Amino acid sequence: MDEITISAPATVSNVVCGFDCLGFALSEPFDRMTLRKTDRREIRISHQDDHDLPVDPEKNVAGVALKAFLDRTNAKHGFEIEIMKRIKPGSGIGSSAASAAGAVVAANRLMSEPFSNRELVELAMAGEVIASGSRHADNLAPCIYGGFVLVRSLDPLDIIELDFPPLFATVIHPQIEIRTSEARKILPVTVPLKDAVYNWSNLAAFVAGLQNGDYDLMARSMVDKIIEPVRSGMIPRFDVVKAAALSAGAIGAGISGSGPSVFAISASAQTAEAVAAAIEKVYSETDIQFIVYVSPISASGVSPI
Ligand code: ADP
Fold it and tell me: Which of the residues in the chain have pLDDT under 70?
């Protein structure tokens, strides 16, 4: 096989109580990417979309991840990548992760799968460093594995796939850009012990809620005293959107990744649609453009199409 086309899903990381360690995959939106082997050991990038992303392989996360991949093999060939990006860069729903994850999963398939999923996450992390200035896997891991994933440790990388009940996400993406690197700079360097205890007990309870399909426990646990109070100020009308999602029946709601997207999760597709209508109403009262996605939480990660 010399060519493959894959889809790479958008992902929601942090999920309110799991900063930098928890994430899930959506079925919509997703990027498409075609990878072809080339005769020389090189990486070439082109894109068929309106996002003005760099085609220099050292600046595009897909190129950086593929370079890390090639460096671990003795392949004589290289890769040509065609990116059809539908997940807007800087949206907070894992646009950069989809490119890095898509590139390494596609390359792995073209080379008869020398690497495990865990190793692919490790390789793709090289891409996340150039996008956000930090090594993190809470978008990459769900993008590659699908479903709800916990990254217990980065070094060594320890990824835990979680069971989860039927869940539907509503995501509103206000068309403003918040760079992950900027959103990290405003975070506190130290946190009061009592806030840390509050957060880690809620993360543990949320995971128990997911495993047992206990929606009420999940709802009680989707709280955060450390990150959300600092970052929510960067998102116009965040508190109103969150309150509207909860009154429309969402289990919980919060900032997706580092924003500006805001997500909610619901137990049924109908509730997720009602949440979409409620939050659309809030943003329609502003002059900010937005896009809303309603999607089941998807058990599949990057897949061939
Ligand atoms: P997101 O959460 O949407 O991935 P980030 O701020 O983490 O947002 O990443 C977007 C940054 O990564 C932008 O500066 C963008 O130019 C850069 N970037 C480089 N290559 C890509 C790519 N292939 N896809 C998306 N973003 C990329």
Answer: none
